[in-house]
Amino acid sequence: MMMCSRSFFILPVTIIIISCAIMAPHLQTASANPKKVVRILDSIPTNNPVQPMKPLLVHCKSKDTDLGAWAMNENDEREFHFRVNIWGTTLFWCEFNWGVKARDVVVFNAQEGQCGGERYCNWIVKTDGFYFAKGESPKDSDFVRQLGWADLILD
C-alpha cells in the first residue's frame, strides 16, 4: 500500500518537472522579459579640430557574448538586442577608440537599473564624451553627459 501512494506522488511531480524544463526557454522570451536595445550614435563631425578624419572604433561585449568590433563615421547608428538573464546580472560594455582617445563604457547594467523600466538605452558619442538617454525616441534635450574621453598613453 505504501509503494502505491509513493508512485502516485512521484508521477505527477516528474511530469511537472519535465513540463517546467520544456517551458523554461519559452518563458525567457515572453513579454515578462522583453528584449533590451542598446543604440549607439556617432555624433562626432568628420571635420573636427580634435581628431580630424578618424573613424570611431567600437567593440562591445558581455561576459558571455562578444559582439565584435566595427568602425563608425559621423551619424552612423548601431544597435544590438538582448534579454536580461534570469539572475538579472546582464552587463554590456563597449571599448571606444577615436584616434588617441579611448574609453570603456558600461552601456547596459541590469543590476543598476540603468534603463529603468525602458527597453531602450541610447548613447551618443561626441567629441567631448558620452551622453545617455533612455526611451524609444528621446529628444536631444533628454541626453545627459555621463563620461568624457581619456587620452591613450603612447610609448
Automatic annotation (TrEMBL):
GO terms for biological process: rejection of self pollen. It is found in: Secreted. GO terms for cellular component: extracellular region. It holds the Pfam family Self-incomp_S1. Its main location: secreted. Transmembrane segments: none annotated. It comes from the Eukaryota. Residues 1-32 form the signal peptide. Keywords: Secreted, Self-incompatibility, Signal. Belongs to the plant self-incompatibility (S1) protein family. This is S-protein homolog. It comes from Cuscuta australis.
